[in-house]
Amino acid sequence: MIPAGLLLPMSASLAADVYWDNPETGLFSEATNWDTGMVPTFEDNAFIANGGTAQVVADEVVEVNILRIQDGALEAVDAVITTGLTSPGWQTPGDFQVGGIAGQMASLTTSGETSITTGRVRIGGYNTSDEGDSPEMHGVVTMSGNSLLMTAAGGAYDLWLGNGNGSTATLNMSGTSRIIVNSSMTSGRAGGSATVNLTEDSAFEVSTYGNIGEGGDANWTVSDNATFTLGGNLRLGGGDTQLTVKDSAIVVVGGEFQIGNGGGNVGIVNILGGELTANSWMSIGREGGTGSVAVSGTGRLKKQGVGNLIVGDVSTGTMDVSGNASVTADSDIWVGFGNGGNGTLTLSGGSTQTSGIVIVARGDGSQGSLKLNGGTLTANAIQKGDNTGVGTATVEFNGGTLRAGADSVDLISGFESADVVIQSGGLIVDTNKFDVTINLDLQGVGGLVKVGEGILTLTGNNTYQGSTAVFGGTLSITTGFLADDANVILASNVTFDLNFAGVDTIQALNINGVWQPVGTYGGLDSDADFKLAIFTGSGVLNVTAPVPEPGTMALMAIGFGATLWTLRRRRN
């Protein structure tokens, strides 16, 4: 049976306004608690506006045309509440309202199996064509148990939290409580603010798009096993907007995910645990806004579907990955896009993987910075700009791993030598069973480690000053660039291809954990003092010290953690 209140919209001229008359706590179903001496029905508009508390208890059914808690409280336990659909447009005080008198507080508490079905919902403020945005409205909703708040189907019945200058909305959900919005959701609008906490196994579902901050502030936290899902886009763009995902929580954005969208707006996403999935374009800092994303702890970020992941989309954006976190993208990653785009991607732990390439400074006037301080970046290539234009780009390697996602004849392309620096933490390249080439002139005080099966070929006039290690596969160098006071460390069952003519002087040589005596080393067909199968090519290494000087080695675990060595060059 369809509740009578949902059959037809009730004309405001036919509906009677019935006000709660008890300043204390009483039953909604008690006639003496209402100013008309009658309990409101589906033909009536019910108002709680005197600071009192109305209770709807187990198995009671409330059917009214409009229900507005403006000053006071409604408590529902195992109850069924239904309103009419009286709001044809978005400018409305709402079919269901919590907080509707300036300066006063209104609250809704639901528990047990309570079910509320309504039209448009306004919590902590609203907008009308006559009054505009409502100031200083305050609403608090607390849901627990298996309670449900649902807007009617049809795509028109939305939910707002915190609208109007100084207005506030607070939503706390726990247990297996659910909110189902069969339209859009907006929080923190037009100078209002919203605070949302989804905990335990609660769920918030939006069928279309959502706004966390639209000219106001909004702070959302999704924790425990809670879920927050949207069928369309999600935009963070207000004065102070933040989304935090932690524990085992799940957030799914069905459309585009825009973080820090719009001039002067700020959007912050912290993924401390759980998982956030974006199923279309993802922009961090967009159209004059500032966006930041931090993925840490055990947090997981997945970008899938159409479009790319953009850090600094014609605006300023940052993304930081640390701890045991993971970021995966089945698309390219752009760091700094378009004129005015300024993006920074920093890895200090965890893993970041793209099925495509990482483009730094894509488009004229863009700025991009990639910092690999730890963790692992998997990509088919790292590229400066493309045919749409080139901006200003920098890449810093300082202890992280660059893992190849495919064979590549130019793994790091388009950069000037000064753009890319190997810092003291060094660069680890995992060829990951692929054959890749770096043609760039690598520079800096740090060193290079080659791990993984496959071949890494260095063709540039490299000047990096640290040591070089091969712990897997083959490293091939086409010039004798190794620093005279640097060390070479080779694991067993690897190949060091000295594909150059002449002699390259180094400090010390370690093979399979054993420091080798002074002398020259080369392949079996070379003229070296020590002819070893671990070497190929015509080049020769001249070893000048049997072991490195004390203080030049630092412990570093590579591969299986069995080999210890340094990337930091000797300091005077």
Number of strands: 63
Report the span from N to C terminus: 87 Å
Number of helices: 0
Percentage of residues in DSSP E strands? over 45%
- The radius of gyration is 32 Å
Taking pLDDT < 50 over at least 5 consecutive residues as the criterion, the unreliable ranges are 1-13, 554-572
Shape: elongated
Query: What class would the helix/strand composition place it in?
Result: mainly beta
Share of helix, binned: under 10%
What integer is the average pLDDT? 93
User: Number of folding domains?
Assistant: 3
Outline the biggest β-sheet. 34 strands, mixed
Structural write-up:
- It is built from no helices and 63 strands.
- It has 572 residues and is mainly beta.
- It has three domains: 207 residues; 166 residues; 139 residues, no CATH class.
- The strands form six sheets. It has a 34-stranded mixed sheet that branches. A 16-stranded parallel sheet has the order 1-3-6-9-12-17-20-23-26-29-32-35-38-40-42-45, with no helix packed on it.
Provide the fold topology.
Layout: E1 16-19, E2 25-27, E3 44-48, E4 53-56, E5 61-64, E6 66-69, E7 72-77, E8 80-83, E9 96-98, E10 105-111, E11 115-118, E12 121-123, E13 127-128, E14 132-133, E15 138-143, E16 148-151, E17 159-163, E18 168-173, E19 178-181, E20 185-189, E21 193-198, E22 203-206, E23 210-214, E24 217-222, E25 227-230, E26 234-237, E27 241-245, E28 250-253, E29 257-261, E30 266-271, E31 275-278, E32 282-286, E33 290-295, E34 300-303, E35 309-313, E36 316-321, E37 326-329, E38 333-337, E39 342-354, E40 358-362, E41 367-379, E42 382-384, E43 392-397, E44 401-404, E45 412-413, E46 420-422, E47 427-430, E48 434-438, E49 448-451, E50 454-458, E51 468-470, E52 474-477, E53 487-490, E54 495-498, E55 503-506, E56 508-511, E57 514-515, E58 519-522, E59 530-531, E60 535-536, E61 540-543, E62 557-558, E63 563-564
Parallel strand pairs: 1-3, 2-4, 3-6, 4-7, 5-8, 6-9, 7-10, 8-11, 9-12, 10-15, 11-16, 12-17, 15-18, 16-19, 17-20, 18-21, 19-22, 20-23, 21-24, 22-25, 23-26, 24-27, 25-28, 26-29, 27-30, 28-31, 29-32, 30-33, 31-34, 32-35, 33-36, 34-37, 35-38, 36-39, 37-39, 38-40, 39-41, 40-42, 41-43, 41-44, ...
Antiparallel strand pairs: 13-14, 56-57, 58-61, 62-63
